[in-house]
Amino acid sequence: MTRLLLLAALVAAAPTAFAQATFGLKAGLNVATIIPDNDEDLADRGAKLGFTGGVFAEVPVASGFSLQPEVLYTQKGVSRDEPNESIGVDYLEIPVLAKVALPVSEFLDLDVYAGPALAVKLGNDDEVDTVRYNSTNLGVAVGAGVASGPFGMDARYTFSVADATEGEANDFRHHVVGITGVYRFGR
């Protein structure tokens, strides 16, 4: 009975929460690599540049605190010197971020955030077929943003907490630094 009452309260509160939500777009650049659990072949691994972009909703929970679910197309992967290859994988990434706002001035806002990020593989663009990626990958995103009016910039670090590859001797994990430009509707 308690669960039913809690569920009813959440369903009743959802329209009010989303009525106060801010929606927006973001797009930018990822700098990604894959790091094995053991450091045996780190020397020849380099960064792979890729696109990231999508939509988000910022849902206020309390004064200065909000939840920000996002749906992003993101490119991850790695480049290697020996052999000379570039391995890429495209994901639909769904982070759900807890966000704390830190007003700096009347015209400038700073925020910090963290939360889980589920990535669903859309496809590989390997130059060579040496790595097979799992169909899903769970990660954690942490970052900060600055905004003035409807415009802003975000910087984020996302890292895998689960093995990104299947059938490999090592566990490989994505490590991604992303910078995005942000536009919030209605601000």
In short:
The protein is mainly beta. It has one helix at 2-19; strands at 22-36, 45-46, 48-62, 65-80, 85-103, 109-124, 136-148, 151-160, 172-184.
The total beta strand count reads 9
Write down the overall geometry: elongated
Count helical runs.
Answer: 1
Mean pLDDT: 82
Tell me the strand percentage band: over 45%
Structural class label:
mainly beta
Alpha carbon gyration radius: 19 Å
Q: Which blocks of ≥5 consecutive residues have pLDDT under 50? A: 9-17
* Overall domain count: 1
The appropriate CATH architecture is Beta Barrel
Termini separation (Å)? 41 Å
Give a short account of the largest sheet. Answer: 8 strands, antiparallel, barrel
- Portion of residues in helices? under 10%
Strand arrangement in the largest pleated sheet: 1-3-4-5-6-7-8-9
Succession of helices and strands: HEEEEEEEEE
CATH topology, by name, is Porin
State the CATH class.
Mainly Beta
Please render the helix and strand layout as text.
Blueprint: H1 2-19, E1 22-36, E2 45-46, E3 48-62, E4 65-80, E5 85-103, E6 109-124, E7 136-148, E8 151-160, E9 172-184
Antiparallel strand pairs: 1-3, 1-9, 2-4, 3-4, 4-5, 5-6, 6-7, 7-8, 8-9
Task: Explain what the structure shows.
By secondary structure, the chain is mainly beta. It has one domain: Porin (Beta Barrel), CATH 2.40.160.20. Helices cover 10% and strands 64% of the residues. It has one helix and nine strands; from the N terminus they run H-E-E-E-E-E-E-E-E-E. The protein has one helix at residues 2-19; strands at 22-36, 45-46, 48-62, 65-80, 85-103, 109-124, 136-148, 151-160, 172-184. The chain has an eight-stranded antiparallel beta barrel. Strand 3 (48-62) and strand 4 form a beta hairpin. The radius of gyration is 19 Å and the shape is elongated. The model is unreliable at 9-17 (pLDDT under 50).
